[in-house]
Amino acid sequence: MSAPAPAPEEKRLHPASLVVRWLKIVPQMLAGGIGLAATSEYGGVQRFILFAMFAGLIGALFALVSWWRFLYAIGPGEIVIEKGVLRRRRRVIPFDRVQDVAIERGLIARLFGTARVRVETGGAARDEGELDMVALGEAHALRDRVRPGARAAEAAREAPAAEPVLFAMDGQRLLLSGLFGFSLVFLAALAALVQQLDQFGIVDWDEWVTVERAEAAGRLVTLWATLMLATLIVLAGLAAGMVRTVLQDFGFRLTRTQAGLRRRRGLFTLSEVVIPLGRTQAALIESGPVSRALGWYRLSFQTLGADRKEGGVQVAAPFARMAEILPILAEAGFPAPPPPAAWRGGPRRALIRWGAPWAALALAAAAGAWLIDLRAAIGAIAFVLLGIAALLHWRVHRHAQDADALYVSHGLLRRRLAVMPYEKTQILAVSRGPLQRGLRLATLIVDTAGAQPMRGIRMIDLDQDEADAGADGLHAAFLAARAARKPRARRKRPAKRKPPAGHG
Q1: pTM to 2 decimals?
Q2: CATH architecture under which domain 342-484 falls
Q3: Based on CB atoms within 10 Å of each CB, which residue in 92, 132, 288, 405 is the most buried?
Q4: What is the pLDDT of residue 297?
Q5: Closest to 396 (Cα-Cα) out of 339, 346, 353, 457
Q6: Do 298 and 317 form a contact (C-beta atoms < 8 A)?
Q7: Residues 6+ positions from 269 with CB-CB distance below 8 Å
Q8: CB–CB of 114/135 below 8 Å?
Q9: Is a pLDDT exceeding 70 seen at residue 163?
Q10: Where are the domains of the chain?
């Protein structure tokens, strides 16, 4: 009788994680101390220093206890994570359930030679498995062992293959892409700062903002002042977008590996993610109005277990020409989009559903302006503009099919082109609303595995018969694509032993 396999060795995180945990705990405690010192009559510099020293000691104690109580083990076919100071929680993640393993390296982690490993299984939990601050070599070994299996990792180490570069961004393109990343996140930061100052009583806005000062500020508001303020906001938005792009996509590099596409990027937080080609469900080509006019696009893949911070997708080329995107699609096994002549839209009677609600609201607002208040005309104009936008949206909502995949393009300003091979189909549904039934229209919904809610591929307001026939055709194409795949090799069962001659 063979001896039982030894239990996997339990490990703790790198000791540098004590510093990270301490840096997370202490600022929260100090924030409360600042508020206490600002609102209490017993505040003062000496009392705040004593409170800061006490917070530092308590934070170090909490960091030490939580580090000591965090254990993980890598077994022959599973990852076991056990954590919790008072309430213990033990999580077992089998290797065959792992959808993705991502490695991130922040500034502190790079100083200590460590990394954060995030294990995603595609489940509903946001934090399936996370090992913060493990040694970099151990992080790479864990990823190689979990994803392709130990034998494939050993073979890859014995005969390392060069990783061809599929896409990379230099400094000039990085700065250019930052110009298209306009962001007003700084306004939210200013609003949060104002709220905190008011909450801690550092600045009393009710006392500072008086009627006299408001009237004086109103006299200063002129056309030139408004234009200057708008210009400053635009410049600040461009600067914020550029900073965010540089921090996120610095050193962007996409290479081809045996497991899929390896993506590296980041300035302070260096992230490394492998996009498994076998788990990609759809390709997304996105563009804004200005970038599309200048020929720049963004390519990403919807995958099983994709990072939920990015909306369930993994970016493969954040700022690329179509000539650079097509080879990446081919490498990932996706066909190129068809020519413009192959695209089709819905019937013209669908314009009634797209424009009629806005037209009714515009007429109601116009009647209110005529009978009640002239200012309601502003609402009528707004509804008319929204109706025009809806009609333009109907015009650009197109779909196409060929022998390999389904293509759907939608979006008025932010255009998104989805490419979905037939074999990736997960759910087919045909829905009809009350107005659609009256106009004999229907919406064909095609969902893939791992798709986020409300982000499925939708062909809106097709002819009712066309939608039904399209669902049947997509189901037949799905079955044909699955049948064309190479069947898995079945294990041969050992032949039954024949009983010896003369056996009863």
Answers
A1: 0.76
A2: Roll (2.30)
A3: 405
A4: 96
A5: 346
A6: yes
A7: 104, 105, 106, 107, 247
A8: yes
A9: yes
A10: 17-160, 181-248, 252-334, 342-484
